[in-house]
Amino acid sequence: xxxxxxxxxxxxxxxxxxxxxxxxxxxxxxxxxxxxxxxxxxxxxxxxxxxxxxxxxxxxxxxxxxxxxxxxxxxxxxxxxxxxxxxxxxxxxxxxxxxxxxxxxxxxxxxxxxxxxxxxxxxxxxxxxxxxxxxxxxxxxxxxxxxxxxxxxxxxxxxxxxxxxxxxxxxxxxxxxxxxxxxxxxxxxxxxxxxxxxxxxxxxxxxxxxxxxxxxxxxxxxxxxxxxxxxxxxxxxxxxxxxxxxxxxxxxxxxxxxxxxxxxxxxxxxxxxxxxxxxxxxxxxxxxxxxxxxxxxxxxxxxxxxxxxxxxxxxxxxxxxxxxxxxxxxxxxxxxxxxxxxxxxxxxxxxxxxxxxxxxxxxxxxxxxxxxxxxx
Length: 376
Prior knowledge:
The chain has helices at 16-19, 24-33, 40-48, 59-67, 81-89, 122-131, 137-150, 155-166, 176-189, 195-203, 208-220, 226-229, 231-248, 257-265, 279-288, 298-312, 317-325, 334-342, 356-371; strands spanning 2-3, 11-14, 35-38, 75-77, 100-101, 104-108, 114-118, 273-276, 294-297, 373-374.
């Protein structure tokens, strides 16, 4: 597992409610200004549209249209969150604020330098196929089954009833901050026991093999508090408790799609900016973010992108080249404020033109990487 991060400098995740409102030109600007972290749940939601009833459009072409906006340029497909939990429990460090991919391979170049070659993931290959409306028959079947299983109206009603029976005391908590404070107090109380590790294994259906390795590691590494032993896994456990207790206290509703929207939350640690148009995320995401992250409404970001695109039409020469590389210097712009807050060394208007020598060096490195020998 390694981080994949490029020139964008700021990692951004959007959910489907935000993603689908951006035009291709607006998306193009996003890829220039950010490193886009594509989550597996977004890809599944797009595939789920294959099974939609046709109402004046071909579902295949709609999925192809969505896939065509998820480019490989300045983007990653993040590793599935359950795989990350399993990896961390077995001792792998999980860094925050950057995308994590699991398709990397060490290589040795002709001059002896060691590098990392990142292969396209299965999800990336699927997105490339979908752009050409090439779907496997099993993808149509999966789409129908996934839609039927995730859109069932009783899903969250049943879950809410189960939570009320198993943890009736949590119904007395008022507000999101009180819920999180209650969980944090519980974590502190249990910091020296394996109870939190056991709860995590149960909540996320961790396999017996991984659970055994996790308990062995916890015992042999001095029984560390879970916050030090598995910080990402603790984040997921905290988010899960938060979701369930908000549901129990009617801070969020029982709309079945809320369960899908919750899956985006597990990827929050791998971005600096999270973009959504969903009311569920309004009630959840801001409370689980750190001071290093920003939550932006999709409609607000779209308005900003539209203004920048209009500005581009009026520019030429160096002014146009500059806006291709960085947001315009406008304190009212969402883009500008994000860059100003998150890129501490950014100087608006600085000359970012790549020299011929730098281009030659980049071309040479690409050539050596293509010819590099995989390290077994």
